Structures are given as C-alpha cells and as structure tokens.
Amino acid sequence: MTQMKLDPMRILASVLLTGAVIISTGCGGAKADKPPAPPPALVSVIEVQPEDVPIYSEYSAQTFARDLVEVRGRVDGFIQKRLFDVGADVKAGQVLYELDLRPYQADAAKARGDVQQAEANAQFARSQVALLQAQADLAQAQANLAKAQQDVTRLEPLAKEEAASQQDLDNARAALKVSQAVVDARKANVEQTRLSTKSQVDTSAAQLESNKALLRNAELNVEYATITAPVSGRIGDSLIPVGGLVSKNAATPLTTIVPLDPIWVRFKVSEGEYLAWQSRKNKPAMSSVPLEIVLADGTVHPYPGHIQNTVNQVDQKTGTLELQATFPNPHHNLLPGQFGRIRFRNEERHGAILVPQRAVLETQGLQSVFTVGPDNKAVAQNIVTGDRVGEQWIVNEGLKPGDRVVVEGTMKIRSGAPVTPRPWSPKETPKPENK
C-alpha cells in the first residue's frame, strides 16, 4: 500500500482558510441578530401662549348656625300633642306642641268674671248716687233756711208794732239758726261725699285695670300652652316626649330650630392676606366680592355669597382672622357643620403662561417640564410655578411663548431623546377608576 506524503505548507493553508471561514461566519451571524433601533416616542404636546386668566383664592370653610333658637315652654304643663316631624322644615308661628289647656282656660274664665264685676263696680261709682243724695239733702236744707229767714223777716216789724208776739219772733229766730246749722252740715256732707265718691271711682277703675291685667295674663298662659315655632328653619329632635312635663324653668329645651336660609359660613385668612387686600387700590370692598362655596363632593353651590363681617381680633395662635359670609340657601341643601372651600376671584393676571398640572415633574423640590425643540428632541426645562388655575399652573419662569410642552408621555422619554409630537387634547387625560 502506497502512502501519500502530505505537504506541511498545504496543511497550514487549509487550517488558516477554515478558521477564517468560521470567524467570518460567526461575525456575520452576530451582526444579523442585533435588534433595530426603537422609533421615537409618541408624545402629546401643547404650544404655550400668553393669555389673560382670573386668579382665584381658596380657603377651607365650614357652615354654621348663626341664629339657632332653643324652643322652651313658657308655662308648666303636660304635653298632649307633638305636631311636627323631626328634621322637618317649619315656619314661624307653626304649632309644635299642645299642653294641657284646661287649668289655664279655667283661670282665664275666672279672670274674665272678675273683670265684669269690676266693671259693674266702676259703673256704680261713676254714677255718684251718694253724692246726688247729699246734694239733694243740701238743697232741702237751704230751702228750709230760706223759709226760716222769711219768717224772721216778716215777724220782726210786726213784733215792733206789737202785732205779733215776741215769742213767735224768738221761735222764728231759733228756727233760722237751726236751719243755718243744717245747711252747713249738709254742705260738709256734700264735700265729704264728693271726696269719697272720687276715691271710689278711682279705686274701682284701678281694680278694673288690675283685673283686666290678670285676665290678659291668664289669656297669655292659654296661648303659651300652645307652643309655636319662633322662627322658620329646620327643627331638631324632641327632647321631651308626649305626656312629659314641661317646666318653664327647665334647663333642657324642648327642641331646637336652625334657620337655613341664608346659611352662614366661616373661613380664615392670614393676617398678611387680609392686610394685602385692605391695602389694594381701586379694588372692590371685601363685602362686595361674590363668593363660591365648593362642597365636599366637588360640586359648587349654585348661589353666590358675600362676606358679612369679620371677628374683632386676630387669632394669636394661628395668626389668622375669621371672616363670616352668608349664602342663599332656598332649597335647604346646606346644613350647619358641613365642610367645603370658599373660592373667590382675587385678581386678573395678564399675559400668563399656563401648563397642565400633569405636565409638571417635581424632583427634590424642583419643578421641571419636557419641551420639544425644533429638531423634535426632548429637552428638560426647569420652571417656577405660581398660582393654580383650575387644572393648570401659571409658569412664572422657565418658559416662553411658543414653547412646545410635553403633557402626555413624559415617563417614556429622557432629555435629548427624539420624540414624535402630536397636539394634546384634555380628553386624553385618563379618569380614575371607581373602587
């Protein structure tokens, strides 16, 4: 068997060629497996432009009952009827309770009879019967005196001429003195009777007025036994049941009534805010600024309110001043004790730049947004925000008119990364799911 003799140089060349093929094949496979570059991120942007916006101030607020009224009994008695539903709206003068009226009706009937008796006594005193009798007696005595005087006058010339006896003249003169004494006595009696009659008239008139006052008091007690609502409003629970005893001196009221229209609201502002408002020129008075109240569920009370007054001092612990306002509440949908937010228009900002709140990123106390440059690349831009207007921030520093600000897609990009911008619409904002 003949053996072939291998050339070492050919073997070396074959090995090198095989290795080159293997390396070339391996490199070509790695290059084919490399993934392609991702497309630019799709983001939603707005182009900011200056605009005039109203600035609103908001404060925590709570409704309260300014004129809560306690309903109390003004007479003692047992409750026979309760004529209202707990939590209902009542009108001023509406009957709430009826007490046992019988004792007070009996007192009123007795007082009415006493008045009639006093009226009769007064009428009798005014008729002056005793005075008329005394005057009649005086007139009779004066007539007798005149007759006695005539007898003396007639007998004196006759006695001088001895045509009549001296005895008859003396008797006539004695009768004249007696008649004069009787007239003087009758005059004194008339004066005494006149004074007595006047005293009786005054006394009977005073007694009549006193009895009328007692009758009025008795009639008031009858009225008080029917307890009515002193004001209009919403009534609370009845603290004394039917059949319970009402006492005019009881510490516990029967119930309470809260007037609801208008409803009062209190809120607090800082001392600095109050002074700043007071120092503004060409601004309306605080009492004329219309207020809104935002309720706990986010709804706005449909009727605007106004500030009515402030308390007389600043709270030294908090440095705040309490303001009190009223809101029309015709449907009684606001109740005392509810929490909300008072909002009112503070000023008008001209040429303000606004961005949606969701576009603003906060990192370690610094605020920033992503803007899209002319080359469609994202740029991180630090900003300084001011007042909030609805769902937007006013940007005081960091943006200029015409800047394109990324609103949706900020979590998918980084500074310098290419993006594909499209106009943003508020409809894109996802709503939170109900849990």
CATH superfamily of the largest domain: Helix hairpin bin
CATH fold-level topology of the largest domain: Helix Hairpins
What is the oligomer described by this structure? single chain
| Percent in helix | 25-40%
- What's the number of domains? 4
**Secondary structure tally: strands:** 22
What ranges have pLDDT less than 50 throughout 5 or more consecutive residues?
Answer: 1-6, 20-32, 431-435
In the CATH hierarchy, the architecture of the largest domain is: Orthogonal Bundle
Main sheet, how many strands, which sense, barrel?
Answer: 6 strands, antiparallel
Over all CA atoms, what is the radius of gyration?
55 Å
Task: Give the C-level CATH assignment of the largest domain.
Answer: Mainly Alpha
Strand adjacency order, main sheet: 12-15-2-11-14-13
Overall mean pLDDT: 84
DSSP helical segment count: 5
Terminal CA distance reads 92 Å
Helix-strand sequence: HEEEEEEHHHEEEEEHEEEEEEEEEEE
Structural class: alpha+beta
Q: Strand-residue fraction?
A: 25-35%
Approximate shape: rod-shaped
Characterization of this structure:
By secondary structure, this protein is α+β, with helices and mostly antiparallel strands. It folds into 4 domains: 42-54 and 351-428, Beta Barrel (conserved putative lor/sdh protein from methanococcus maripaludis s2 fold), CATH 2.40.420; 56-66 and 260-346, Elongation Factor Tu (Ef-tu), domain 3, CATH 2.40.30; 68-100 and 225-258, Beta Barrel (OB fold (Dihydrolipoamide Acetyltransferase, E2P)); 102-216, Helix hairpin bin (Helix Hairpins, Orthogonal Bundle), CATH 1.10.287.470. It has 5 helices and 22 strands. Mean pLDDT is 84; it is low at 1-6, 20-32 and 431-435.
